[in-house]
């Protein structure tokens, strides 16, 4: 392209006007020669414009623009260069898209792109094997029509994708898949699906092993504890010096029994997703009975235990599981609160759901322990644990029970100033109160 095309254009125009004036000088008709000269120039310009228009409308993808002279030559050249540059950029972009599509198509994990309504837009080959999607029939179909597991629908509609979801594959019940959903762009979804069958089997083996070992140990331990009790009853007749070791053995035996019971309960909680007996549970009666047990556990320790309950709020779920979770929290409060301390149990509902809080004025927990407190066998202080006879499984049981009841546990605590454990239940789990009343 000529960089000095402005000068060339002015030179050409000056040349045309000079030519016209020269003809005017010869012929004596200055005006007419100028009109005819400029008219011819206008006609030629119009012709070039029509050629350009014609080419823009009808050209083939690789066809070069027509040759031109002067300004029009420059215009045609510029358009041609722009067209070539555009083609090169498009070619490079297409190559990137092809590479991305090839690599995602070759992935063992399924990749599915969904639009903002949850309809299928694009997926790779693995999605056909893991989810049974069919190309191209399923394009545009809502994903929940094709992955029909009720937990998937609930998970997808809920919109909280912080944790992945594990379900059986819609193609084959023996395959376990894990789904990760990420939102991007204009509320579109990217769904990654992994085959976790092997991991699931290993996890299942671990759970079965713990459940079986706990179950198998229960009978011998019951026999040993039974004999220890008989021996202790008659220890004075046999040898009074055995009294101390025998009672220590009995104490440890009882501790092992509690541990096995907790392990079996955890195994049972993990074996199923939802409580089998999903019934309305009268929480007020449940808490009153737990308060009675807590008072018995507290004994002569002079602790004040108060109840503050909204008597008309009930919860859907398993009474046995909820009793186990709530009593773990209340008994912990009794165990970890010094003599003369206070324990406050509150049960109420609001627009966020239902809540049970157990607040104590006890020893408290350092902040650094809070995130790990619900892990199995996690101990804040092992010496403290040994003196209270805890198994380290109580809060793990609470966490599992709450998960199965659409709930979670919040813990707040200040070392030396007590702790508050709050069970938060989703509104779906709550049986709405008609009238509210408070009892202490
Ligand atoms: P444990 O059977 O040992 O009580 P948990 O799982 O119930 O096991 O609790 C885990 C740990 O959390 C306990 O060992 C204890 O250190 C701490 N903890 C639980 N509840 C309280 C509480 N109310 N106050 C202080 N520490 C607590």
UniProtKB/TrEMBL annotation:
Gene that encodes the chain: phoR
Major location category of this protein: membrane
Keywords: ATP-binding, Cell membrane, Kinase, Membrane, Nucleotide-binding, Phosphate transport, Phosphoprotein, Transferase, Transmembrane, Transmembrane helix, Transport, Two-component regulatory system
EC number of the protein: 2.7.13.3
Domain of life: Bacteria
GO biological process terms on file: cellular response to phosphate starvation; phosphate ion transport; regulation of DNA-templated transcription
A Pfam family it matches: HATPase_c
Keyword field contains Phosphoprotein: yes
Annotated TM spans: 12-42
Protein name in the entry: Phosphate regulon sensor protein PhoR
């Amino acid at each position: 392209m000529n960089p000095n095309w402005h000068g060339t254009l002015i030179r050409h125009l000056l040349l045309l006007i000079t030519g016209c004036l020269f003809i005017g000088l010869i012929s004596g008709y200055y005006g007419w020669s100028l009109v005819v000269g400029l008219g011819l120039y206008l006609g030629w310009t119009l012709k070039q414009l029509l050629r350009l228009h014609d080419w823009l409308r009808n050209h083939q993808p690789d066809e070069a623009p027509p040759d031109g002279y002067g300004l029009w030559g420059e215009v045609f050249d510029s358009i041609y260069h722009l067209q070539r540059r555009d083609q090169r950029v498009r070619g490079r972009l297409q190559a990137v898209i092809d590479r991305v599509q090839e690599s995602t198509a070759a992935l063992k994990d399924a990749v599915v792109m969904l639009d903002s309504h949850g309809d299928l837009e694009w997926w790779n080959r693995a999605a056909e094997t893991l989810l049974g999607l069919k190309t191209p029939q399923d394009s545009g179909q809502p994903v929940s029509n094709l992955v029909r597991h009720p937990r998937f629908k609930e998970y997808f509609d809920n919109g909280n994708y912080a944790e992945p979801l594990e379900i059986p594959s819609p193609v084959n019940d023996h395959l376990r898949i894990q789904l990760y959903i990420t939102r991007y762009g204009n509320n579109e979804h990217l769904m990654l699906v992994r085959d976790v069958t092997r991991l699931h089997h290993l996890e299942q083996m671990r759970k079965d092993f713990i459940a079986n070992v706990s179950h198998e140990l229960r009978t011998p331990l019951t026999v040993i504890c039974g004999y220890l009790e008989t021996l202790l009853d008659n220890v004075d007749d046999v040898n009074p010096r055995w009294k101390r070791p025998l009672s220590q053995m009995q104490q440890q035996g009882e501790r092992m029994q509690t541990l096995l019971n907790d392990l079996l309960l955890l195994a049972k909680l993990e074996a199923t997703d939802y409580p089998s007996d999903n019934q309305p549970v009268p929480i007020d009666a449940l808490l009153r009975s737990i308060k009675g047990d807590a008072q018995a556990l507290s004994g002569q320790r002079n602790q004040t235990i108060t109840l503050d309950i909204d008597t008309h709020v009930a919860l859907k779920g398993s009474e046995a599981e909820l009793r186990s979770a709530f009593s773990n929290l209340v008994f912990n409060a009794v165990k970890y609160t010094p003599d003369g301390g206070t324990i406050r149990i509150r049960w109420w509902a609001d627009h966020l759901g239902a809540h049970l809080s157990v607040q104590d004025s006890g020893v408290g927990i350092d902040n650094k322990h809070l995130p790990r407190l619900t892990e199995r066998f996690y101990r804040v202080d092992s010496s403290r644990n040994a003196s209270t006879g805890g198994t380290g499984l109580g809060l793990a049981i609470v966490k599992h029970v709450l998960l199965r009841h659409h709930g979670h546990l919040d813990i707040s605590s200040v070392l030396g100033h007590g702790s508050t454990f709050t069970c938060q239940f989703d509104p779906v789990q709550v049986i709405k109160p008609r009238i509210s009343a408070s009892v202490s």
